[in-house]
Amino acid sequence: MTASPVRRLAAPLGLVLLAAATLTGCGEDGADDATLQVLAAASLTDVFADLADDFEEDHDGVEVELSFGSSTDLAEQAADGAPGDVLATADEASMTIATDAGAAAAPTTFATNVLVIVTPPDNPAGIESLADLDGATWVRCADEAPCGKVAAAVLADNDVTAEPASLEEDVRATLDKVTSGEADAGLVYATDAVAAGDDVTTIAIDGAEEQLTSYSVAALDQSSDAELADEWVDLVTGPDGQAVLTEAGFTLP
Question: Does 172 fall in a domain?
Answer without folding.
Answer: yes
